[in-house]
Amino acid sequence: MAKKKSKIQTPDWILKGGEDEKPKKKKGKTFKVRRCPECNSDDVGVVIGEIGLWECRKCKWKGTKVNEEELDEDEFMKYLDDKGEDVA
Ligand SMILES: [Zn+2]
């Protein structure tokens, strides 16, 4: 019986532990978060019936310019954590 030589070997770089391999931060999905310029609450929404008008449900601010923040997935998860509430 001829024993077949396995061609599958563990490559050297794996044996070394792959220390050179750094987790590259991928520029993937980003999430936009809007915040009230007055109280920095994210509880802002568009005013129904008004185009481009925003209001803050916390401090009742109204205006057209909300602060926008762009978060990547990690930051967004953290942001949700900080909020500590379920997202509808
Ligand atoms: Zn506000």
Structural features, described:
The chain is of the alpha+beta class. It has a domain at 30-83. It has helices at residues 12-15, 73-83, and strands at residues 30-35, 44-46, 54-56, 62-63, 67-72. The strands form two sheets. The chain has a three-stranded antiparallel sheet, with no helix packed on it. The termini are far apart. Residues 36, 38-39, 41, 56, 58-59, 61 line the site of zinc ion.
Core attributes:
alpha+beta, binds zinc ion, two-stranded antiparallel ribbon
Unreliable spans are: none
Secondary-structure element order, as H and E? HEEEEEH
Main beta sheet strand tally, sense and closure: 3 strands, antiparallel
**Pairing-aware structural class of the strands and helices?**
alpha+beta
Bound molecules: zinc ion
Shape: rod-shaped
Mean pLDDT: 84
Helix content estimate: 10-25%
Q: Report strand %.
A: 15-25%
Distance between the termini: 66 Å
Provide a count of the helices.
2
User: Based on DSSP secondary structure assignment, what is the total number of beta strands?
Assistant: 5
* Radius of gyration from CA coordinates: 25 Å
Strand order of the largest sheet: 2-3-4
Q: How would you summarize this macromolecular structure in one to three sentences?
A:
With 88 residues, the protein is α+β, with helices and mostly antiparallel strands. The protein has helices spanning 12-15, 73-83, and strands at residues 30-35, 44-46, 54-56, 62-63, 67-72.
Outline the secondary-structure elements.
Layout: H1 12-15, E1 30-35, E2 44-46, E3 54-56, E4 62-63, E5 67-72, H2 73-83
Antiparallel strand pairs: 1-5, 2-3, 3-4
The protein binds zinc ion.
Zinc ion is lined by residues 36, 38-39, 41, 56, 58-59, 61.
